[in-house]
Amino acid sequence: MSGRTAIVTLALGDELNERWHRLCEENWQRYADRHGYDLICIEQPLDTSERALSRSPSWQKLLVAGQPFAEDYERIVWVDADVLFGLEARPIASQGPPHLVGAVDEVGMERPDVRRLLHPNPPSEYSELGLSQTFDQMVQGGVLVVSPEHHREVLGRVYDEYEDGPRTVFEMRPLSYELLRRDLVSWLDPGFNMLWFVYRAHNHPELSRYRRHPKSRDAMRQALEEVDLLHFAGEGETMEFLLASARSSVIVPEDLPATRSPVALTIHSRPDETARVLDAIRRARPARLLVIGDGARPEIPGETERCRLTRELIETVDWDCEVETNYSEQNLGPKERIETGLDWVFSRVEEAIVLEHDCLPDPTFFPFCDELLERYRFDERVMSIGRNNFQFNRPASSDSYYLSRHSLIWGWATWRTAWNTNDPEMTTWPELRDSDWLRELLSERHAAAYWAHVMETTYRDRDTWDRPWQLSCWLRDGLHAIPNHNLVSNIGFREEAVHTRPGTGGLLIGDLPTDPMSFPLRHPAEVRRQAEADRDLNAVMCGGTVTAMFDRLLLVRRGMVVQ
């Protein structure tokens, strides 16, 4: 016995093998070199019998300790092929005595609220298999520290005596049962096998439903700074996405043509954000800039000065541009100020790109709006051009944009003819509220319930302008062009904001990175709503829970649905 340690994995099949070598091998080798471990990737099945081929390859980890090469090692660290080692991962082989199997308790790694979703009753997970003993713990089989000398026999027995089934979670429950009833487990710190979906639920629950959310990459990098081993547990495609470069292949030229459309900018008391948005407008060089400003709230300390500093920024416009301002010396509030401001804008221009002080556009946002304002100028079905995309790297189509029933107003564009249909007082709402109109319009039950509440609250409180606009568009069966790339980032989510505080959605949709639009644009073949994309948008805006995500996760792990 040499006393050496080997990290061993099984990467069967071309896809898994290629993914491990491309995404994991370098990361694993750095860890192995740092701690003096060998690294072994098994690329051929250890058992080719008919029985072996009829069940998950995951079972074959139980045969590793019985392979001839295993005799050269005191410890074998089994690691599933969808694991990454943390940046400062500790030496795992020295964490327990050699006569015990080092493993993480999957139940114990979870916070109580998460545990209630994944493992509400751990003993029942053993009893439902007909096993004679039950336990409150569950060995997570993705990372195991085993000794060929001490554990070859028990691992082989589990492989020989148990069959795969819908409730076994591959080999995990039978293996956990046999190790626990023999008192053969040395529990490791949960950081040695932290499941990605558990880490995400603990630290970034807003991302739980959206595996390809742009912010997930930062969350993964944070996890790799905090844990020893990060286990994606069947989410190989998620790992692929998170490790892929986030940089767009679209190169934005420095000399984009000046935007043809007038730009309307609403400002108030946030000079820092306004300066960034104004710099983006400066790059677009519109010939007309119409600025809407609200007055300071006297009860807010320092707001008068911040409003003055913000308005002074408009005086720095240094390109060939006609600047018009519409400033209120009294505070009207966001509803009245934006409604009256846009009334003023569209009394002066036929169409405009509209930006708020905290909506930072990608440079390609302006030519995107220019082209679609011209294309749909006389099409009464289209009410606005949007800017945000909340599909989270799941494009609605192969076109440059899709058509939605939802108006997204963190940077948008529209025409005078469309804005003139706006009913800021929502005069039709009482009649609509008492009918089935909204349920018929929004076929998703949760969406109808959400919007009924939102519209009723807005009608009662008169506190925002965008929901009356949305209702006005719905009454005309209006459509909105939504880019398949996110073209505007809302940089204004903070505690003192009126509508965009972090707890009101900022964690999920605030400060999203932008992705440049490529040209020439690919237009939809027909002017028709993309219903599936709207369902996804409804889920982001008003539906979906962490519980639903875990329900699906459990089905995936039991092989009952495909990811």
Could you give a short description of this structure?
Helix content is 38%, strand content 16%. The chain contains 21 helices and 19 strands.
The fraction of residues in strands falls at 15-25%
- Based on CA atoms alone, the radius of gyration comes out at 29 Å
The CATH homologous superfamily of the largest domain: Spore Coat Polysaccharide Biosynthesis Protein SpsA, Chain A
Predict the CATH topology of the largest domain.
Spore Coat Polysaccharide Biosynthesis Protein SpsA, Chain A
Number of helices: 21
Low-confidence regions: 497-504, 544-563
Q: Largest sheet, described in full?
A: 6 strands, mixed
Number of strands: 19
Question: Looking at the structure, what is the overall shape?
Answer: elongated
In the residues, how many domains can be counted?
2
Portion of residues in helices? Answer: 25-40%
Proper CATH architecture of the largest domain: Alpha-Beta Complex
Query: Order of strands across the biggest sheet?
Result: 2-1-3-6-5-7
Straight-line distance between termini: 43 Å
Multimeric status of the protein: single chain
What would you say this structure looks like, in words?
The chain is an alpha/beta fold and 563 residues long. The chain has 2 domains: 4-243, Alpha-Beta Complex (Spore Coat Polysaccharide Biosynthesis Protein SpsA, Chain A); 263-424 and 465-529, Spore Coat Polysaccharide Biosynthesis Protein SpsA, Chain A, CATH 3.90.550. The chain has 21 helices and 19 strands. The protein has helices spanning 14-35, 50-53, 112-118, 122-127, 148-161, 172-181, 196-203, 216-226, 236-243, 271-284, 303-314, 333-348, 365-375, 416-419, 429-433, 437-441, 445-461, 466-475, 506-509, 531-542, 546-557, and strands at residues 4-10, 38-42, 73-79, 83-85, 101-105, 139-146, 185-187, 194-195, 229-231, 263-267, 288-293, 322-327, 351-356, 359-361, 382-385, 401-404, 412-415, 479-483, 488-490. The strands form 5 sheets. The chain has a 6-stranded mixed β-sheet, sandwiched between helices. Helix 10 links the parallel strand 10 and strand 11.
